[in-house]
Specification:
Blueprint: H1 5-19, H2 22-25, E1 38-43, H3 47-58, E2 64-69, E3 82-87, H4 94-108, E4 115-121, H5 124-127, H6 137-149, H7 154-162, H8 171-174, E5 179-185, H9 208-217, H10 224-229, E6 246-252, H11 254-267, E7 271-274, H12 283-297, E8 304-310, H13 325-337, E9 343-349, E10 361-364, H14 368-375, H15 379-384, H16 388-395, E11 398-399, E12 410-416
Parallel strand pairs: 1-2, 1-4, 2-3, 4-5, 5-6, 7-8
Antiparallel strand pairs: 8-12, 9-10, 9-12, 10-11
Helix pairs in contact: 1-11, 7-9, 12-13, 13-16
């Protein structure tokens, strides 16, 4: 292989992101409109692209609500009939509530003969937020911060979210008389459709008891209003009636990106070793385990690439620096590899944003720790302080791609003996 290892790793990441781009994965899945009109609600980090594709497919006058991250712009919108709601992520705000109220009103105004097409992607839980009765936005923001900081998995966080919401856990679909068809780009390990954006159109199998257990397990101290809501049977997620139908289809997920990257590896004459798209747990612990595995594989004479996806977590220190789960994984991996001369890596979030600081992730190479030593930077101290992004910014290797317009969660590639 003549290509620079880090350049190849970027090619693998870009191939994975491109495969999960709405324009490349949605075409086979558009539902037939039926006898009435089509109304669209798009929510998540891929919402803008998904909504524009729907307008292209069903016509530019297709009405709808589009809820997308407020760090993006509306440039290039192709539908004059849709209403655009920028909202904050990862902590919901007032515009998240306005967007959720607009979505509920839009869904409730459709008739039985209509089709409500819901286009979901990761990030929707924050972007479309409407707390249950008695809960303030401040209460929910505080709980969200605690859940993000304690190391809870995305499925655990979404379980709690469903039971303190007026829109999640199937409540958006339940508000409409129309047939509901959902197309989802999954950022959930294992592609549980009921967890994408906390499942606003999917009947939930989680319970209030499970939500309370998650709160207890992580030692979270909820406000009195949230405590009351989680003990109120009225906040159990609704069960759907037999009519109208509620269908959901996953159009891409983490495996979509890994499959594309594996194909590119094979084309380059490199053996892909795919560990799966559902890896979870503490980012630094996974980085350490993968370092040990990569060192074992490095004893082989032929080049290979270890690929994995999923969503790790980070338990945040008392005074954290600038980091993210992918840069933290990369730092732990670099420490574990200890400057092995034949191993390079990339760890990044496919949505383009990893944690705090606006970066996408990080790359490592055989000289990462050497450069840190020359600069007098202690990698173990940086890891302890959740300061991985600042570490790579100073040492080299911080990856900054910006929003990608899709989200199938983490993408990790370890290139060995290229």
């Amino acid at each position: 292989m003549n290509k620079d290892p880090l350049e190849l790793l970027l090619d693998l990441f870009h191939a994975g992101v491109a495969a999960a781009d709405p324009a490349n994965c949605m075409e086979p899945y558009w539902p037939e409109p039926g006898t009435g009109k089509v109304g669209v609600i798009a929510c998540g980090k891929a919402a803008r692209q998904m909504a524009m594709l729907a307008a292209r497919h069903y016509g530019p006058e297709t009405p709808g609500i589009v809820i997308y991250p407020d760090i993006e712009t509306e440039a290039g919108n192709t539908s004059t009939a849709m209403q655009w709601y920028p909202a904050p992520h990862p902590v919901p705000g007032e515009r998240s509530m306005a967007a959720a109220e607009a979505a509920l009103a839009f869904a409730s105004n459709l008739a039985e003969e209509d089709l409500l097409l819901v286009l979901l992607s990761g990030g929707g839980s924050s972007l479309m937020c409407l707390p249950a009765d008695g809960i303030t936005l401040s209460d929910k923001q505080d709980l969200g911060r605690q859940l993000l900081a304690c190391g809870a998995t995305v499925s655990e966080i979404n379980c709690v979210r469903k039971h303190i919401s007026r829109v999640k856990g199937g409540r958006l679909a339940n508000a409409s008389k129309a047939r509901v068809f959902t197309l989802a780009i999954s950022d959930i390990p294992g592609d549980d459709a009921s967890m994408v954006a906390s499942g606003p159109t999917c009947e939930s199998q989680t319970t209030l008891e499970q939500a309370r257990e998650i709160i207890k397990r992580y030692g979270i101290l909820p406000t009195q209003s949230i405590h009351a809501a989680l003990n109120d049977s009225a906040n159990e997620c609704p069960r759907f009636p037999p009519w109208p139908p509620r269908d959901i289809q996953i159009v891409s997920g983490g495996n979509t990106a890994l499959t594309a990257a594996a194909a590119l590896c094979e084309w380059q004459g490199i053996e892909p070793i795919v560990l799966g798209d559902s890896l979870q747990g503490e980012a630094r612990e996974l980085g350490r385990r993968h370092a040990r595995y990569a060192l074992e594989k490095a004893s082989n004479s032929h080049p290979c690439c270890i690929l994995s996806g999923g969503e790790t977590t980070v338990t945040v220190a008392a005074n954290p620096g600038m980091g993210g789960r992918n840069s933290e994984y990369a730092l732990a991996l670099a420490i574990g590899l200890d400057g092995h001369p034949g191993i390079w890596s990339l760890s990044a979030d496919t949505d383009g944003i990893d944690g705090v600081g606006g970066h996408t992730g990080a790359t490592t190479d055989p000289d990462t720790l050497y450069r840190a030593a020359k600069l007098g930077i202690n990698p173990r101290k940086a890891l302890e302080n959740n300061d991985s992004a600042d570490f790579f910014d100073r040492v080299g290797g911080l990856l900054v791609e910006g929003p990608t317009g899709t989200n199938v969660n983490d993408f990790r590639a370890i290139l060995i003996n290229p």
